[in-house]
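Worked example 3. Consider a protein that binds BIS(adenosine)-5'-pentaphosphate.
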Amino acid sequence: MNIVLFGPPGAGKGTQGVRLAEQTGIVAIAMGDMLRAAVANKTPLGVQAKQYMDAGKLVPDAVVIGMIEETITAKNAAKGFLLDGFPRNVAQAEALDDMLSRHDFTLDRVVFLDASADLLVDRLSGRLMCKACGFGFHRHYSPPREAGCCDRCGGELYQRADDREDVIVQRLEVYQQQTAPMLDFYAHRPAFRRIDADAGMDEVYQRLVDAIKDKV
Ligand code: AP5
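Given these inputs, the predicted complex is written out as structure tokens:
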């Protein structure tokens, strides 16, 4: 079961992807998390990626395409994977098709999480992330039990550098210009599903499960 989950920043890709992976055993591969780990470890790639991420722009295609191919062909993704944040433009979607066919993988579902612009800003500006395990919270919609402290591992919570309001605006623009055209690329395929992601987290999760249930 191989899934692409895409949608605007703040639509809930990370939140729903982690939950689905925990429930099904599919490996969730989050491009943003991989890049943030590279930045934190100050790898050459991370140093290169940081300037783009902090500015809310896309990291060059060659960098992210290489990282994804390595990950999906690794043994731990043999039971299937869910891609969150990749592809993010039509060139990456074409590269994904190419790598899937070379490695004999199918793409069983492409799920688009559709959410309203005003909700996105509210979700992103209130997001808190765990420094240690990367789990996401929200100040109002899913607050941690103890302020500043991750429920799962006790790690320290922080606000992402790109969740400042000026960078959020830039990310939403980049989404409209570069990621939204992927809708035309995928919408005609039988694997495509569109989900209304304006609802609460549990309801959106149920819609996601319904969208893939005949495949698991
Ligand atoms: P990435 O980390 O992928 O960021 P993004 O796509 O902007 O998405 P987000 O993580 O911000 O949002 P999400 O949809 O996962 O929402 P979440 O579930 O956290 O990428 C970061 C950067 O890396 C990019 O800007 C770019 O520079 C670079 N990059 C990554 N991939 C790349 C690629 N392929 N090519 C080039 N560059 C790339 O939810 C958000 C908040 O809302 C949370 O607080 C959550 O608790 C809350 N929430 C979620 N769902 C709900 C709900 N239903 N109701 C209420 N609250 C909710």
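Take a moment to read the result before moving on. The pocket of BIS(adenosine)-5'-pentaphosphate is lined by residues 9-15, 31-32, 35, 52-53, 56-59, 64, 85-86, 88, 92, 123-124, 126-127, 136-138, 141-142, 162, 171, 200-201, 204 (CB under 6 Å). The CA atoms of residues 127 and 134 lie 12 Å apart.
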